[in-house]
Amino acid sequence: MFTKLQHLIVWAMAMALPLPAAFGQTQLTTTPNASPQATVSQTIGLAEVAITYHRPAVKGREVWGKLVPYNTVWRAGANENTVIRFTDNVKVEGQPLAAGTYGLHMIPTEGKWTIIFSNNSTSWGSFSYQESEDALRVEASPRESGNFQESLSYEFVSLGPDGAVCQLEWADKAIPFRIETDVHAAVLASLRQQLRDKAGWSWQGWHEAAAYCLQNNVSLEEGLAWATRSVFMSPNPQNMSAKAMLAAKLKGQGDAEQETKIALKTLGEDLKANTCTWKEYNAAAQFAMNKGQLEQAMAWSEKAVDMSANMTSMMARAKVLEKAGDTKAAAKVKQDAVARGTNAELNNYGYQLLFSGKTAEALEIFEANTEKYPEDPNVWDSLGEGYVNAGNKEKAVKALKKALSLNPPDNVRANSLKLLSQLGVEYDSPKP
Questions:
Q1: What are phi and psi of 103, to 5 degrees?
Q2: What's the CATH superfamily of 277-340?
Q3: Cβ distance 57 to 22 under 8 Å?
Q4: Per residue, what are the HEC states of 186-200?
Q5: Quick one: which of 50, 224, 244, 383 could link to 366 by a disulfide (CB 3.0–4.6 Å)?
Q6: Residue ranges per domain, the chain?
Q7: What whole-number distance in Å separates Cα of residue 249 and Cα of residue 246?
Q8: Residue of 237, 235, 376 lying closest to 312 (CA atoms)
Q9: What is the pLDDT of residues 13-68, one digit of tens each?
């Protein structure tokens, strides 16, 4: 009759694997391991999953049913326990498994395999495995891998925002098992902790947490509380809009008309309750206009202009007037806005229009800027770029050459020359 020690020695010799130092001569030197250690890791949601294992090689042997016997607990690797670690709670093949470190074992069969997560992760292989220490058992269906794998490996495939498949690959088989995490629950738990630290010291942290709830339609009540805290700390267009939309989602219960009413009511209450600038009223007007509430948009845009008649507030008012069908009044406000605009304001606004696909409107602004600041090479460069986008080569070349004639700074010169080159126009512009 073999003792447990004799079983271990015979089994290790059959696997062509080194014996633990405790059962042989003390090793004082370091030499390469026949089954080298490896680690693979993957982030799934916020959870970090890592597997540390040893990689035996086939070496011409018949693996399944021979080298690795069927219906016997196997270490799923070589040498010490194969160890799998989870930083967060997960589900494996739909079954819950708590965050922690586990010994990973498998029971191969000619049909479905059993994947075992043992609370004991510090043993030598599966020799001392005890079923009573199991944290979880799940079933997996092996498949033909398609590519022969000489050395055993683990790989994460089919990655998604809340799950991935981990699979052992060796010889001609792959044994996959799916790992999932509740991303939203993990993120919310993390946000709660973060808001107790530096993130909670400013309105941005509370706003970002609220925005996560809004974007993912989760924990809306908590999100609304976070948005309210953000608005209390520093009311601004971003957090006030987020709060309004969260209130609408939470209380509107999917009724679009009701949600709009709630959002506008919430926004209006915050505008009155907080010390707001023209920027908040201007953003509220855009919000109302996008919701089709033109009367409210008109009132808030008028308030914004009254507080600060600048190019941004006046252009926004012009949009509301256009939307309401009063094109004559819109044109007058737009004209006044351009007259008030600084060089930088006009240039930036022109590019906003250009990047939004409103090329004709952008050209109007760029032309107006060249009329106000004809000696600035940058305004001509911007006009030339606008005409390039409009496909008007003749006017683009004229504007770009004008920019180059005004001794532009290096960045403007480089842009004008690049655009001329794209148009197939050579221009000798020696740097002074």
A1: -80, 130
A2: Tetratricopeptide repeat domain (1.25.40.10)
A3: no
A4: HHHHHHHHHCCCHHH
A5: 383
A6: 4-22+34-181, 183-252, 277-340, 343-432
A7: 5
A8: 237
A9: 444 444 444 444 556 766 677 788 999 999 998 899 999 999 999 999 999 999 99
